[in-house]
Recover the amino acids of this structure.
């Protein structure tokens, strides 16, 4: 079965007047936890393994701020920026049109000022979206609802069966594009979100479980609480450290592969895959941060499909597992233990290979090497070992 191609549209062209005037500009550029709100939202979608394309709908007056916000994420994938329209509906339509040249099955439409969406929520919405059905994350209405008139309560509204709608809202791309095209010609009909356009056009919309934390930041008070949350004033940030160890036997050969780099040598490492001890140890370290077992659980050596496989496959898979669990990789450190070959000439290339696999900056990657002072199997040049440590932040950092 083919995997649906998922794209995301982030709507970030509003002015956010209810949050008040601010030197940082529109609400989506206001800083919480040290970064613009839009940056938190962008990173969550860009890091999700199912999202292949991101379109950012922005106000052309914010071009400089938009470019500065996107720049730190260049390594995570392309963000296509298109101009917003006079209304949110027009802005979403512009974003949908920008995807017309991409092979997209599913599109997720998300508010820029909902920075606390989780990887699990993205998964639920994407999974519930099909060729003939959209998906809407909702949370049940908990408060008693009152109907008022002239400043007085005139009725209590039955809240059973009532839900508050959230984003991202998922749709089959062609169906929601057609719905928006039809809606653009109906000035007499008011739409409050994309799900209402889908309903009006006859597209079924399934409800999926939303998240109370996935709040839309509207007022200055909302921004203040979000800032305190990200700074850890309301709860602890979940920082986890994982360790990994691997060793492979040296046999006759003409090269070794260490941390993704092929190094000429008079021996080679023996293993079911390419026997890259550095990548194997780091894979285990990452999996350890979220209790996801070890490399053998996911890529058993008894499975012939992994024979001779490049170990960046394993490391990338561990990265995606961490991202799906809501983790952000902060640091990766590998110590290689061998008498030969010399590691120093290749350290920079190794660090870059690791950074590319993990989609993090090179300054967050360390590769070190030491000998075993001719002691033991390493000292006798019978094998090479690696120890890896990874630090990952879960939950609070998006």
């Amino acid at each position: 079965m083919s995997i649906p191609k998922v794209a995301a549209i982030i709507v970030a062209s509003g002015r956010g007047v209810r949050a008040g005037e601010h030197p940082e500009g529109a609400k989506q550029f206001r800083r919480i936890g040290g970064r613009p709100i839009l940056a938190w939202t962008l990173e969550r979608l860009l890091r999700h393994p199912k999202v292949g394309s991101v379109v950012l709908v922005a106000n052309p007056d914010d071009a400089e701020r938009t470019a500065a916000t996107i720049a730190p994420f260049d390594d995570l994938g392309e963000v296509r920026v298109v101009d917003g329209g006079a209304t949110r509906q027009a802005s979403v339509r512009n974003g949908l049109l920008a995807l017309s040249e991409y092979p997209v099955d599913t599109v997720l439409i998300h508010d820029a000022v909902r920075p606390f969406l989780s990887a699990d929520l993205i998964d639920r919405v994407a999974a519930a979206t099909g060729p003939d059905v959209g998906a809407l994350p909702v949370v049940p209405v908990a408060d008693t609802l009152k109907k008022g008139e002239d400043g007085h309560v005139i009725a209590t509204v039955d809240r059973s069966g009532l839900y508050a709608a959230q984003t991202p809202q998922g749709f089959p791309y062609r169906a929601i594009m057609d719905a928006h095209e039809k809606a653009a010609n109906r000035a007499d009909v008011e739409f409050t979100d994309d799900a209402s356009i889908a309903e009006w056009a006859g597209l079924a919309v399934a409800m999926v479980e939303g998240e109370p934390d996935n709040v839309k930041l509207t007022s200055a008070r909302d921004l203040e609480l979000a800032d305190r949350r990200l700074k850890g004033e309301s709860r602890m940030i979940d920082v986890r450290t994982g360790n990994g160890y691997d060793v492979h036997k040296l046999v006759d050969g003409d090269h070794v592969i260490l941390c993704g780099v092929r190094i000429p040598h008079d021996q080679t490492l023996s293993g079911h895959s390419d026997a890259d001890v550095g990548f194997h140890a780091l894979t285990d370290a990452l999996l350890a941060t979220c209790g996801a077992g070890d490399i053998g659980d996911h890529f058993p050596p008894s499975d012939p499909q992994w024979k001779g496989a490049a170990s960046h496959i394993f490391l990338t898979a561990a990265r995606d597992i961490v991202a799906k669990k809501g983790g952000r990789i902060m640091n990766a450190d590998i110590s290689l233990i061998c008498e030969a070959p010399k590691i120093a000439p290749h350290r920079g290339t190794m660090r870059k290979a690791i950074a590319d696999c993990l989609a993090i900056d090179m300054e967050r990657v360390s590769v070190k090497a030491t000998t075993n002072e001719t002691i033991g199997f390493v000292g006798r040049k019978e094998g090479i070992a690696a120890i890896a440590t990874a630090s990952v932040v879960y939950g609070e950092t998006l």
Observations:
- The chain is about 30% helix and 30% strand.
- Residues 312-324 form the longest helix (13 residues).
- The radius of gyration is 25 Å.
